[in-house]
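Aim 2, interim progress. The first record below pairs a target sequence with its structure tokens.
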Amino acid sequence: MNRNTTTATTSLADYDTHHKFKSEILDGLKEEPKHLLSKYFYDKKGDELFQQIMNMPEYYLTDCELEIFTGKKRELANAIRAFDEPFDLVELGAGDATKSSYLLEYLVKQNADFTYMPIDISANIISVLEENLTSEIPGLKMTGLNGEYFEMLDKANKISSRRKVILFLGGNIGNMEIEEAYQFCNALKSRLNPDDILLIGFDLKKNPHTILAAYNDKAGITASFNLNLLDRINEEL
């Protein structure tokens, strides 16, 4: 029997995305200093630009995490399967799953009983994952969740009561202010059970020039990525 399962359980359209987009943009522009939420970078064009950023030689995070997931997938899988129970592997901000796919493939080959639940704000990314990932990893069971992290994590807990393994990669927590990071971790903790596992990526301290080059590349891809949000605002609002 074919175990491949792909199910989109919800959509951003379920909770009036346009109104929320407009409201949060206006709130950010009223504050001092003015700011725009980074989650709105990720429409179809933004997804494509970010994939280009991840492939730039200056963007060191991708290579670092690929090294971990290719070289340490066995150790990671053993830690995840320590309880020898079925589980759901929930990835917050999955993107194209380039890094986590190595772990997913290894778990499937080890006959682990799990469902992959990628969460992403981009409906385009969830659609791409549903189309590509289960064909690239035969036997992978997947339920895509399109929306905000905690709303979709709550939905994942309603869908399944199985133990959760949470992935939060790419140094995303480094995009948050300190107080915001505290609030995020507390909100995440409140949704986890004692046997759940959290695997989170943190960038380490390094030469500021290295960081600047990663986020201000000479080719101007990151600048285009940032400006794409202004294009979204002009076109959609």
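The second target in this work package is listed in the same format:
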Amino acid sequence: MPKSVTIGARISVDLDADLRKLAAVTGRSRSRLVGEALRAYLGAEKELAEALASDRDDIRSAEMRVLRAK
């Protein structure tokens, strides 16, 4: 069994209602749904952060080429 930790988060009443409905419809626990949502969100944020870092590096490299050309 994978190790896990318990965390606490404050969410809106509306979000909780949506979470409960989805849990009931899918037969998955609220905990599992939150974990899946968090994993997807963190994955997307990581990809964005990596893309921004790469773009920033490309911009710096281009700036250096322009400065050297002057």
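The CA atoms of residues 19 and 67 lie 54 Å apart. This observation will shape the mutagenesis plan for the next reporting period.
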